[in-house]
Design a protein that fits this description.
Layout (H helix, E strand, L loop, with lengths): L4 E4 L9 H16 L3 E6 L9 H13 L6 E5 L4 H13 L3 E4 L3 H13 L27 E4 L6 E6 L3 E6 L7 E4 L2 E2 L1 H11 L4 E5 L6 H11 L5 E5 L2 E2 L15 H6 L4 H10 L12 H7 L10 E2 L2 H14 L2 H14 L10 H8 L6 H8 L10 H8 L3 H13 L6 H15 L3 H12 L8 H8 L1 H12 L1
Parallel strand pairs: 1-2, 2-3, 10-11, 12-13
Antiparallel strand pairs: 4-5, 5-8, 6-7, 8-9
Helix pairs in contact: 1-9, 5-6, 8-10, 11-12, 11-13, 14-17, 15-16, 15-17, 15-19, 16-17, 16-18
Amino acid sequence: MKEIRTRIAPSPTGMMHLGTARTAIYCWAVARHFGGKFLLRIEDTDQVRSTQEAVQVILDGMRWLNLDYDEGPIYQMDRLDRYKEVVDEMLKDGRAYYCYATPEELNEMREAQKAQGLKPRYDGRWRPENCVGKPIPEGVQPVVRFRNPDNGAVTWNDAVYGPITVSNAELDDLIIMRNGIPTYNFAVVVDDWDMKVSHVIRGADHINNTPRQINIYTALGAEVPVFAHLPLINGQDGQKLSKRHGTVSVLEYERQGYLPEAIFNYLARLGWGHGNMEKFTRDELAKVFELADCSRAAARIDWKKLEWLNGQYMKEADDERLATLVAPRIEARGGKVEGGPCLKQVCGLLKNRATTLEKLAENALFFYVEPKVDAEQAAAALADGGREALALFGEKLGKLADMTPEAVYGIIQEVMAEREIGMKILATPLRVCVCAAERTPQIDVTLCLIGKDEVLKRIAATLG
């Protein structure tokens, strides 16, 4: 069986978009499903917009999503000699030709075509048979154009959309090299040919490029890969996803406190389905993934569902790992993790109540900072017997030799019995005045994590 080889080939001109990340996940899944190879190629021929910072964003995004590639990163700018070699061969036998038309000439040509109600397209004026005896203009740097077939049609069986046919009459002689730099449609064919890519999986916005590329494959005598075009990701309003819908950069989700496995899972499910599978591991995806299961309709992102899914992963996450991820977020909020309660235990206590790492850090902050008690809330909490209950609790806690959740709960029960009060009369002052929070997890466990000395210090500061 032929080796299955897929690739993700982003341009380093900005952020790593959610659509690029989803495509990478599908490419990875196809390769892993068949035991093949997954490649990373950086398409950096746009020297005006490409930056090293954007390259790093791509590498960081791939690493964060744990998309392990087998070959690469391969940079197009390192392959200029190879593109020139192929172009020279095509020029020799007439598969390509030099075009000396200036930008001004081409603009005039297009305007004239529009005036006649025609579709603007290159008219072949510098095809060899059309310029016999025509002098080559001085001072004009020519481009190289591919000689597209005049007749017939291009047909391919798209792995997502099914059979697609485009007439060659709709295509013109596209530029394949300008100033020694290959254009996208040419470079991508040479790259995929050389790298033996078996499946080209990409967004549906590339469908118009595919017939042009297939003609170049045919002209080169290269095997045409399987093409699979993925519907775009839309916002909840059904419009193409953009910054106005919120976050569209993969790494921004890391900053917002999402776990990579949740983003991986959510993006994989956004436009693909297998039975009732909603939550799955990377290995489970690789085992069942088929391009035929991809939808032909654009997917709509649902931020609430993503946050819910992330919450499910948060509940299952290892506490030690969560502590590592949350620590810098607590520090960024002014908390001091070192010397405070065991963060691993704090994460274990709080993770079921948080849907992101940011929310977990916010919920854990009162363990690691001096609580900023709201005066009005404190006054309300200490009214109606709350002050006396809190004072008695502090007195009994000070005499406690070994602070455990069971012992703290015992003191709470004693105070309630002695003061003849309900749980709320004591629990509310403990939460508001000791934790600076209206709600906390189990109060006895929470107080034990804060520690006896710190709890007593906070009670004293409240009671004055």
